[in-house]
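Question: what's this shape?

___
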Amino acid sequence: MRSIRTKLFLLIFGSMLGLFALMSYVSIHLLNKAIEEDISASMKMIVNEKIYALNSDFNRVENGTRELEKYINNNLDTRLLRSNTEYKNGFYADLADKCADVGGLVGNVAAVYFRPEPDKFGSTSGVFMTVNSNGELVSVEPADISQYTKTDRDFVAWYYEPLEKGAATWVKPYHNKNINVYMMSYVIPIYKSNAFVGVVGMDIKMSSINTIIDSVDYKDGFAFLLSDDGDILYHREYPDGVEMKRFNSDMRATAKYLTPQEASKRKMHKCVWKSADYRIMAGNLDNDMVLAVCVPEDQIMRISKSMKIQMFAIFCIVLATVFAIFWRLMVIIVLPIRELTKASTRIAKGELNTAITYRSGDEIGTLAKSVSKMALEIREYFSYIHSQAYSDAMTGVGNKAAYMDVVKRMDEKISEGMAAFIVIVFDVNGLKNVNDNLGHEYGDMLITDAADIMKRVFSAENVFRIGGDEFIVVIENQDDDNIAEYFKVFDEEVRVFNEQNVRYDHNLAVSKGGVSYIQDEDEAYKDVFKRADDMMYKDKEEFYRGRNDRRKR
């Protein structure tokens, strides 16, 4: 008998290769982790830096606008503003000076204004200051609000949107055609004694905001700004922004990382942009806007990829050397072991007819003979046990144990993406009434008669009795159209049976519900069963509707 020691020698070399592969994997894994942590820290620093810059601009505008709101609330007499021209002119002149002072302190302001309610105070009434060619805030005649409707966003978004919200509002970017500037507006509606008086606001040029966002210079990355409801306010490829409802598939998939709640976590995520892999991190601004920074995946993992290539080259050299030296030993020893292992695995899975063809005079040959003999004995014993353990004695269909095996098999096929089957749930109607009035002997007849019909329609191997009067049919490679055909045949069989039945004075009636497996909806067999069971109960409710002998399960 040949010794198996040479096989153990080969195992040592296999262990060496495995150890090398493990070390390579661990090294690359640790490298990737270190790179990702470094990238995450760098991206967080960039996000925080840009958020700080944007917050500075936005907060100055908000604080300046609140200062003007406070001034107006403290100094405005709405009665005199409507009735006294001298008061109105004086108030507007003082307010214009205040707007110029505050706007100058805020900086980077496109316009500052107070516009009272047009129906009460006049459609051109108010103060409107914009920047002249010298960069100074100067008063200009306010636009006539009455000429525009709420839908004329480029002219009066700054007025109607804050009015509708009834609170301080950042108006999303728009092209103000009154002064021909692309801007954002921060506007506060003013109320006195719960009555709307007007709006006070500041406009900030989007060009200055865009400059901050576009200043991200990190590994070919880019940044973009979103509103609190998910619309893109600025992106270098969408300078005029884009509403969330118009997002493409890549943008929709990424949107879940860009909510204010998710952005507050400052976590790095994977995303796809124009079919390329990116890493993205978002952060909240003080005004609930969201800034996101994206970096190309290939830029992040360039070092890791280089190391992987080198490790793979070394591994190939080592593998080729070992393969050349021990090729003959593999043919003599390893391949028979693989053949025996595959056969043993199939036998362990229940394929007891698997043939083991390997023959030799060494320990492996002896093991092969033993496994073959064991498989034969198991096959004979399994045949006996199966007949005892998997059949329902009264009806001749599969019992609950057989059904649970089918459930397990269907779950395995679902997890492998190979499932295609239907589930039909049956429940015999009126069984309790028959048992109570005719006796359990007739109840058993009712059950066996129903089972006989199911066996004729669905074949006995597909029918399982899981309770007193409950049956389940599971058939593979069938769909909803097949269910409809089965139900036609089943209903006809029941009708014929009831016409010919003379053993007892009771019509056989069976509630049923059937569905097919839906790949993208059903995560496990139980999901398919629940839908079929629900349909069966609806059918049962329909059967019992209006009857006095309703049976509750």
User: Anything to note?
Assistant: Residues 549-553 have pLDDT under 50 and may be disordered. The radius of gyration is 39 Å. The chain has four domains: 57-208, 216-300, 303-387, 391-544. The longest strand covers residues 181-192.
